[in-house]
């Protein structure tokens, strides 16, 4: 297989296992490229890509921009703060005005679930979802699974626990879809109030005891408490949350096996994980960030090359 089955990357739900494996094998090649002294290839020369960020980002925004520049694309960056969105311009008008300037692909982060899907139906451009509310964050899930494959040799058969604020996390949903398509076993762990009501329909194990989750898994993907998306109190205090769901080095060292620690970032040090866990030899957090560039290069390259039927 040499091309993706989709025109856009809206969510992992739309990808096949073959799509994911094609992205990974392409990312393997780009990872080799970005470790060379000359890190740039001409693959997307004369392709213009707009990065539209309607919500804050550090990693995803920089990673996409770097991936685009490594592929020799022309890049424009837009953030809603300081734009005419503040004067009442709609999403479709904003994007169509940008596309009128001959843009080929759009990478978009937006606070509303379904925003990328909505855009794909109304504008004539390839759309990549860089996170839509609490719905999906497909490129994060792909770089996470790529990093597990790199560290453990394969994703199939591995036990991955996703721990923390599952309810508000787009990373959790995309990771569940991606890991299951690749044959991993997935557990979610956190307080009952931070589990979505539909969680049992996703075919994952659920656990509320952190120690049991850590004893079960090969990989723990630690999620941030997303206070900015919480409109009510889901637990008494951050201190209490940390006592029950925060991972410390002492706890990791007391387990019978060495597990891998992941985190999509941004980390709240001292809440979901302590600094000595984040910076330990078991953590692959910065490997995830490094792999994000190669994985995003692969996605941009494959979508750009997908000619319309
Ligand atoms: N992991 C992630 O999406 O980080 P940013 O919000 O900084 O892009």
Descriptive overview:
The protein is of the alpha/beta class and 309 residues long. The protein has 2 domains: 12-137 and 290-303, Aspartate/ornithine carbamoyltransferase (Rossmann fold); 138-288, Rossmann fold (3-Layer(aba) Sandwich), CATH 3.40.50. 38% of the residues lie in helices and 15% in strands. The chain contains 11 helices and 9 strands. It has helices at residues 17-34, 59-70, 91-99, 115-122, 138-152, 170-181, 210-216, 238-245, 249-253, 275-278, 285-304; strands at 48-53, 74-79, 105-110, 126-132, 159-163, 185-189, 205-207, 219-222, 260-262. A 5-stranded parallel sheet has the order 7-6-5-8-9, sandwiched between helices. Strand 5 (159-163), helix 6 and strand 6 (185-189) form a beta-alpha-beta unit. The longest helix is centred in the last third of the chain and has 20 residues, at 285-304. The radius of gyration is 19 Å and the shape is globular. The mean pLDDT is 95. The structure holds phosphoric acid mono(formamide)ester (CP).
CATH architecture of the largest domain: 3-Layer(aba) Sandwich
The count of domains is: 2
Question: CATH H level of the largest domain: which superfamily?
Answer: Aspartate/ornithine carbamoyltransferase
| Secondary structure: number of strands | 9
Mean pLDDT: 95
Within the largest sheet, what's the order of strands?
7-6-5-8-9
H/E order of the elements?
HEHEHEHEHEHEEHEHHEHH
Low-confidence stretches: none
Query: What spatial form do the alpha-carbon principal axes imply?
Result: globular
Look at the helices and sheets and give the structural class: alpha/beta
Strand percentage: 5-15%
Count of alpha/pi helices: 11
Radius of gyration: 19 Å
Bound molecules: phosphoric acid mono(formamide)ester
The name of the CATH topology of the largest domain is Rossmann fold
What's the CATH first level of the largest domain? Answer: Alpha Beta
Share of helix, binned: 25-40%
Largest pleated sheet: 5 strands, parallel
Distance between the termini: 16 Å
């Amino acid at each position: 297989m040499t091309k993706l089955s989709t025109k856009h990357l809206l969510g992992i739900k739309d990808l096949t296992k073959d799509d994911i494996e094609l992205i990974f094998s392409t990312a393997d090649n780009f990872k080799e490229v970005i470790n060379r002294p000359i890190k740039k290839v001409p693959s997307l020369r004369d392709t213009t890509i707009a990065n539209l960020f309607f919500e804050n980002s550090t990693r995803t925004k920089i990673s996409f921009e770097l991936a685009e520049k490594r592929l020799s694309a022309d890049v424009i960056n837009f953030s809603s703060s300081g734009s005419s969105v503040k004067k009442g311009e709609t999403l479709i008008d904003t994007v169509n005005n940008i596309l009128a300037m001959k843009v080929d692909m759009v990478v978009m982060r937006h606070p509303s679930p379904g925003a990328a899907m909505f855009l794909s139906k109304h504008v004539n451009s390839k759309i990549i979802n860089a996170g839509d509310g609490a719905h999906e964050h497909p490129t994060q899930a792909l770089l996470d699974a790529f990093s597990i494959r790199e560290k453990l040799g394969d994703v199939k058969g591995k036990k991955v626990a996703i721990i923390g604020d599952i309810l508000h996390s787009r990373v959790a949903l995309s990771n569940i879809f991606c890991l299951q398509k690749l044959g991993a076993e997935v557990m979610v762990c956190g307080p009952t109030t931070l589990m979505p009501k539909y969680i049992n329909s996703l075919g994952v194990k659920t656990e509320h005891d952190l120690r049991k989750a850590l004893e079960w898994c090969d990989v723990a993907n630690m999620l941030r408490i997303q206070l900015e998306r919480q409109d009510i109190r889901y637990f008494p205090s951050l201190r209490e949350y940390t006592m029950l769901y925060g991972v410390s080095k002492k706890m990791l060292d007391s387990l019978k096996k060495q597990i891998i620690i992941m985190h999509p970032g941004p980390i709240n040090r001292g809440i979901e994980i302590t600094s000595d866990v984040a910076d330990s030899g078991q953590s692959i957090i910065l490997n995830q960030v490094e792999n994000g560039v190669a994985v995003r290069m692969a996605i941009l390259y494959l979508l750009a090359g997908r000619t319309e039927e």
